[in-house]
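A brief tutorial aside. Many learners find it easier to grasp structure tokens once they have seen a single protein encoded end to end. The record that follows does exactly this for Germin-like protein. Read the sequence first, then the structure, and try to relate runs of similar tokens to stretches of the chain.
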Amino acid sequence: MATSSSILLLAALLALVSWQAIASDPGPLQDFCVADMHSPVSVNGFVCKNPMEVNADDFFKAANLDKPRVTNKVGSNVTLINVMQIAGLNTLGISIARIDYAPLGQNPPHTHPRATEILTVLEGTLYVGFVTSNQPAPNRNKLLSKVLNKGDVFVFPVGLIHFQFNPNPHQPAVAIAALSSQNPGAITIANAVFGSDPPISDDVLAKAFQVEKNTIDYLQSF
């Protein structure tokens, strides 16, 4: 019969293996693995640059994240700093973004397929939230939302649809977000559904959204 100590050891090993299996990015096996953007070798991530050629600039970017950005037509601007901007982020499983919101601007419903996000409001007020998955009732597609003020923090779990909206018609807002991947990715729901190339059949979307096809055609025209 297995002793209690051996059972605990087995449980700990299983927990460690499970954690590695669900991690967004693979854990590093050395101090760093600066991405070699010029390597012809294709891997999940980037090949490591020769460590003898690594210098401090591989871990640095003059990103000017303290400066305001011009917002887009929905009233936001996301300045993402990931492995494509700082090669030293390769295998480290983290990135950061500054998000600017115009008055009544929003970062529209979207997902990050490879990252959990933790957002901190630096200026202004934000109405934020995420929607749960198609899990069993009563938590199916449940909206969890909150109004955030300066200094508040909110977490968006990996893969779930979420948004941020500035409800103030007169003042902009600013937030900083950290994401648990060197390359979190982003899928903006409206763009993906109504702006795919080639477009999704209006028969499919009309059935899915239970609307007339001319409504779908109108939305796809933008």
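Self-check: The longest helix spans residues 4-22. If you spotted this yourself, you are ready for the next section.
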